[in-house]
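User: Design a sequence. Structure:
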């Protein structure tokens, strides 16, 4: 057996024996509320389509209008082929949503985080990052070659210690999720802003899971009135806004800098017109329906209470993302399959996505759920609790 064959078998076996092997499920229409899996119709609580926008007729029409006006591809990087009008409209709408001067759209949320960190930080910089930040933030810091200082999750005392320890470094940055994707809890943005102001730190916030939901859709920074205190506001079009892509909103000078230095923007073909058209439609929908996010958060609060009453550990969640923490990998997979047998699809999240010993089911509640859907999900969890007792 060649080295490659030995290496491949060893890699596969280490994942499978540790309960960390993943496969792509065979699901059509994966963003819809009701999806077909193995010939069965199930309620989809695994998607990040929080407001149910991805399947709306207005979104589809906007995507088709983009194709009819501009074709199916942008052709190259915007720095090479320029831009089409929809891009300018989308970036203006996003800047308005986030109460910022300007915006730059990237090919994905991952690309946006990697782009903003690598454009601003470098050798000689230090980047402070919450230990539970998204992988794209971690990868951006690694690629930037800056020193990575991870502070304990939402632990302001530990962050203050880290900041004091690095007070002699001039180029300091801090980046945090506003809503954490696996726990559904919120960053203490007020305390973070105060510490960054005290220590003269440039601050960025990833609002991927808050945009469209929190703060009448504007995000947690706007809800707390901190939009002017935070230097960079990152978000995605692919979750609450129902389309695809990432963006960074900031002062015009910062956006101009990103256009020149963010490699994930400079060296990537721009998103196609259909995606931009749908994204613009999603932003305008949120602006016209600012109450929908609050309604979803209220629904989530009631459902968290229900799960807690059954004895499930829902962690520190305060948003539409609700973890059911089971801890053991095999039991988590079993619980996922048990819910699926009751007609409910949820994600089984295991290390390395979450820390060792914290495997969980991840529920992503949706604003388009009807009472009958909620009743079915409640029944499924009652059955799961009885089976686990």
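Assistant: Done.
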């Amino acid at each position: 057996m060649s080295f490659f064959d030995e290496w491949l078998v060893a890699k596969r076996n280490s994942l499978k024996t540790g309960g960390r092997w993943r496969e792509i499920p065979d699901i059509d229409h994966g963003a819809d509320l009701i999806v077909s899996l193995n010939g069965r119709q199930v309620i989809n609580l695994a998607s990040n389509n929080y407001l149910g926008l991805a399947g709306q007729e207005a979104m589809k029409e906007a995507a088709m209008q983009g194709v009819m006006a501009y074709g199916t591809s942008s052709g190259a990087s915007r720095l090479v082929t320029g831009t089409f009008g929809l891009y300018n409209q989308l970036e203006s709408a996003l800047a308005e949503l986030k109460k910022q001067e300007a915006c730059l759209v990237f090919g994905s949320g991952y690309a946006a985080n990697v782009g903003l960190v690598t454009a601003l930080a470098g050798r000689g910089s230090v980047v402070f990052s919450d230990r539970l930040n998204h992988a794209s933030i971690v990868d951006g810091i690694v690629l930037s070659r800056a020193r990575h200082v991870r502070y304990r999750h939402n632990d302001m005392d530990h962050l203050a210690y880290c900041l004091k320890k690095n007070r002699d470094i001039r180029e300091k940055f801090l980046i945090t999720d506003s809503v954490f994707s696996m726990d559904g809890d919120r960053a203490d943005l007020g305390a973070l802003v105060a510490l960054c102001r005290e220590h003269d730190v440039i601050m960025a916030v990833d609002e991927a899971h808050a945009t469209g939901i929190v703060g009448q859709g504007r995000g947690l920074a706007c809800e707390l009135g901190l939009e002017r205190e935070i230097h960079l506001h990152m978000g995605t079009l692919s979750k609450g806004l129902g389309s695809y892509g990432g963006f960074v909103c900031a002062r015009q000078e910062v956006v101009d800098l990103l256009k020149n230095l963010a490699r994930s923007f400079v060296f990537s073909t721009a998103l196609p017109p259909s995606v931009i058209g749908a994204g613009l439609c999603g932003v305008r929908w949120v602006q016209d329906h600012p109450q929908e996010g609050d309604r979803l958060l209220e629904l989530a609060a009631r459902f968290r209470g229900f799960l807690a009453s059954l004895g499930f550990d829902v962690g520190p969640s305060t948003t539409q993302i609700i973890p059911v923490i089971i801890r053991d990998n095999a039991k988590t997979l079993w619980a996922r399959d048990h819910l699926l047998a009751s007609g409910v699809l949820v994600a089984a999240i295991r290390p390395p996505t979450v820390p060792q010993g914290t495997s969980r089911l991840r529920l992503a509640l949706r604003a388009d759920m009807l009472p009958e859907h909620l009743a079915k999900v409640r029944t499924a969890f009652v059955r799961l609790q009885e089976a686990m007792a």
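The mean pLDDT is 96. Residues 20-49+290-388 form a domain with the Aspartate Aminotransferase, domain 1 fold (CATH 3.90.1150.10).
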